[in-house]
Amino acid sequence: MRIAHLLPLALLASCATVPPASGPVALDQPQRVGRFLVTPLAVEEDSRCPMNARCVWAGRAVVRVTIDGDGERLERNLVLGEPASPGLVLDSVTPDKVAGADAPVMDYRFHFSPAAVPLTR
Questions:
Q1: Structure letter (DSSP) for residue 25
Q2: Against a cut of 0.70, is the pTM above it?
């Protein structure tokens, strides 16, 4: 009989929100980076050189994110490998580009890290 009383609690526990990931995340999935919660919203640009091509320019990846922390919400475009205010860097975007094939946007994964030198606003 005691087990029957625990069933509602078990069901409620299964509805708990999933904590932010610490590793690569998909669109709309938050990642905890220090005191910030970074959520990628959209791939604004992906002009990276395909892994099976030779390019004059390496290209870049730009991801629109929200940054929650310090009691405020910011929206920024982060460029792969470039530190951005408030001290974050988009340090990886997968999958790699392949010449002649575009990856579905839902296959993208992003990883964010603290920037080496925090920037001022």
A1: B
A2: yes
